[in-house]
Amino acid sequence: MFKRILIVLFVLNSVNSEAINNKDSLQSYIVHFSQQSEIESLRELSHYKFESIDALNLQNTYFKFSYYKSKLSQSAVVSLITQLPYYDMHQEDNVVSMRTTTPNDTFFGQQWHLSLIKAVQAWDITRSGVNRRGDTIVVAVVDDGLHINHPDFQGNIWINYADTLGNGVDDDGNGYIEDTYGWNFVGQNNDISDSLYYKAKHGTPVSGIIGARTNNITGVSGIMWNVKLMIVNITDTGRFPTTYQSDVIKAYSYILYQRRLYEQTNGQKGAFVTVVNSSWGIDGKKPNQAPLWCAFYDTMGAAGILNVSAVSNAQE
Question: Rounded to whole angstroms, what are the CA distances from 129 to 215, 268, 274?
Answer without folding.
Answer: 14, 18, 11
